What we know:
Blueprint: H1 2-21, E1 26-29, H2 37-41, E2 46-54, E3 61-68, H3 74-81, E4 85-87, E5 94-109, E6 117-123, E7 126-134
Amino acid sequence: MIVRSMVLLWVLSTFSLGAAGQSDPVLVSANIPMYPAIACTARVEGEVKVTFTLGASSNEPTQVEVLSGHPLLKPAALENVKTWRFINPYAVDRKYETTFTFRLSGRELPSTATKRLTVSLESFRTVEIMTDAYQATMNYAQ
């Protein structure tokens, strides 16, 4: 019984050490991503995929590039990644990919109301930004 417990403990500790060696750098600082006003007004939603490199033991991303996404959403994702700072234990350059998902909440508010902005960041690999939209107003000249 004791031998089995020791073997189980050894297997679990080996797995834990292996998993720790495979972990991502830790995002410790970032600006709050914004939903571009023009994209919100145009009711544009979608995903933007961004890649970046963390240099050896560096804490800030370099070679930040957009892989795909709507042209109205790309600049917001690109600029936000440039503000990120990490704890990076790796002694080699590594390339990462992250996905920004821009969504409208489905609520439309009068233009005088304050919109809600919700940002969800489970890890730096997935960022979700959701906001309310302003009601469309028509101004017809007489």
